[in-house]
Specification:
Length: about 120
């Protein structure tokens, strides 16, 4: 069963959001390797963090700050603890730079905003 949830556009919203570092967790080795091995060869992850989805504890949102040349991007993926092969791209950067299928919606805008704000901090 696929979980279809709602995710509003986050790119502009996250630029001015503060973040709650108490919600940020380290991604598992499996999550780090899954993202790293599936990125385009010219894209380098420079920071990776995770956060549990509050209303769906079986899901973990993983975010990475990516560098391609002089450009920096933030990409998000959703990992399903009940099905380790079920990894979904959440935003356009994740879809553009990795081979994971896009999930059109998620009900974790607060978690996604928090991860994006954390990864975009200076």
């Amino acid at each position: 069963m696929r979980y279809l949830l709602f995710l509003p556009t986050l790119a502009l919203l996250s630029a001015c959001h503060s973040f709650d570092s108490s919600e940020i967790i380290s991604p598992t080795d499996y999550q780090i390797q899954s993202v790293s091995f599936n990125l385009s060869k010219d894209v380098i992850p420079t920071n990776m963090v995770a956060q549990k989805v509050k209303n769906h504890q079986e899901f973990t949102l993983v975010g990475a700050r990516l560098q391609q040349g002089n450009e920096n991007f933030v990409a998000l993926w959703l990992f399903n603890a009940q099905d380790s092969a079920d990894i979904r791209s959440i935003n356009q950067s994740a879809e553009a730079f990795s081979s994971f299928p896009h999930l059109t919606a998620i009900s974790a805008p607060d978690e996604a905003n928090n991860l994006i704000a954390f990864l975009r901090r200076d």
